[in-house]
């Protein structure tokens, strides 16, 4: 288990309001604000992508470790921006379909995902967050 600090840095693009460039380990990703051009992936979608990616990686690794033959894994994550409180999501749902296994094996693999994924559990239980702001002229 790694406890390394992970960092993603973001930068605005001066000539394109609402468009951002994210850097993670030398990889670059273009994102858009929901108020921006709406051509690139948006922040809420990145949250769902993180849940989806973690689910597939976790299930695949655990299936291999447990000797469970899996044909393929499909994961779909959804949420809806809050109706009463727009600073939250009303719900987040993760749908997992594991092809090539029976229901018991699928539930076993899903339980292992739920019990070990920090992304899933942070969304499920919440965590503390620190905000550090610096202004400069």
TrEMBL record:
- The entry's protein name is Uncharacterized OsmC-related protein
Give the organism the record lists: Rhodococcus jostii
């Amino acid at each position: 288990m790694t406890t390394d600090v992970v960092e993603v840095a973001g930068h605005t693009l001066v000539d394109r309001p609402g468009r951002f460039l994210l850097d993670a380990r030398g990889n670059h990703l273009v994102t858009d604000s929901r108020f921006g051009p709406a051509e690139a992936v948006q922040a809420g979608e990145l949250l769902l992508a993180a849940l989806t990616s973690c689910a597939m990686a976790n299930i695949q690794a655990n299936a291999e470790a447990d000797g469970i033959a899996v044909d393929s894994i499909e994961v779909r994550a959804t949420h809806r921006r809050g109706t009463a409180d727009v600073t939250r999501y009303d719900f987040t749902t993760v749908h997992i379909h594991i092809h090539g296994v029976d229901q018991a094996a699928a539930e076993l693999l899903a339980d292992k995902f739920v019990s070990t994924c920090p992304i899933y559990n942070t969304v499920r239980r919440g965590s503390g967050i620190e905000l550090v702001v610096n202004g400069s002229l």
